[in-house]
Amino acid sequence: MYHFSTRIQGDFAEVEKNVIEALKAEGFGVLTEIDIKSTLKEKLDVDYRPYRILGACNPPLANQALQAEPDIGLLLPCNVVVREDEDGSIVVSFMDPAAVLTLVDKPKVAELAGQVRDKLQRVMAAVAG
């Protein structure tokens, strides 16, 4: 599996805010935020449920990963998806760095991926309540 996720009842904007705060508590900042709903509406005139992709980065760990493998930037940042499901619940999904970074055959990267995964799982636990 390339991700792990949790399902939450609540207001979309509030859940997204809680995700961002939980990421900060684990040393991540959000470098990018892509609003799929508004982009699809603007570009294709397609209506879509709320859906945001947050590009999360933990600078010290990203720096270590870049030192171990300069091209690892192709696999960064760690994406976190906050989306509204058909039943109105909010799904928060996290890219599993341990799965994705198996593409890089370097022990140091695997070790870092495990650390990042642990942090993201703590974020998931925090937002799941």
Strand proportion, as a percent range, falls in 25-35%
List segments where confidence is low: pLDDT < 50 over at least 5 consecutive residues: none
> Structural class given helices, strands, pairing?
alpha+beta
Order of the strands making up the biggest sheet: 1-5-4-3-2
Biggest beta-sheet profile: 5 strands, antiparallel
Give the number of helices.
Answer: 5
Could you describe the 3D structure shown?
The protein is an alpha+beta fold and 129 residues long. It has one domain (3-128): TATA-Binding Protein (2-Layer Sandwich), CATH 3.30.310.70. The chain has five helices and five strands, in the order βαβαβαββαα. β4 and β5 form a beta hairpin. The protein is globular and about 45 Å long.
Outline the secondary-structure elements.
Elements: E1 3-8, H1 12-25, E2 29-35, H2 36-44, E3 51-57, H3 59-68, E4 78-84, E5 90-95, H4 97-100, H5 107-128
Antiparallel strand pairs: 1-5, 2-3, 3-4, 4-5
Helix pairs in contact: 1-5, 3-5
Summed up:
By secondary structure, the chain is of the alpha+beta class.
Entry keywords:
single chain; 129 residues; alpha+beta; TATA-Binding Protein; 5-stranded antiparallel sheet; 5 helices; 26% strand
